[in-house]
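User: Could you check the structure of this?
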Amino acid sequence: MIDHRRILKDEAEPEYAEFSSKLIPGKEGIMGVRVPKIRALAKRIIKDDWESFLRDEPEIFEEEMLCGFVIATAPMDAERRIEYTEGFLGIIDNWSTCDSFCSAWKFQKKDSEKVYGYFADLMNSGDEYRMRVSLIFRMDHFIDENHVDDLLEDIASYRHEGYYYKMGAAWAFSFCYIKFPERSMAVLESGRMDDWVFRKSIQKICESYRVPDDDK
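Assistant: Sure, the predicted structure tokens are below.
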């Protein structure tokens, strides 16, 4: 099996570790390996023996990221990827691991509704990062005609005081606005959103280069 810990150690950059630690405050065990290098290592592990790799618990931040990329992209069916995901969600404790994992997660079109249902149900967990995973995953893969209203409704209806949940909600809302401005505006005008998420959503919409100046 590939000695991923040695490779990560060789790729580590102390200055980048310091930089990353500022972006992910409170997260310990950051070595300073850049994300493209972690992705490249994940591809090597998948070609080698990814199932054996996933039997070991990650010990540092970069190993958590690596584990996420392997789970998200290794060749397996949707049911099995969901099983691995369920075990991995308890490890996610920062926005970086969450968002990288969500964007990388692969599935076939025939499994779309099964996958959507699993991630949508995470909103009921009451856990900050499971709820953020739910929003960011759907933002990445399901802002479409059939699903955007459900995502907007969840952002309006659910509450969590965690900062990273709220940031994820505002970010997801801004992406909904970019693709479906009229539907998103109706939710903004409804008065049902959390006040902080409401204000941050507007800020992110106004900061987006993809929103017309008249809308801003």
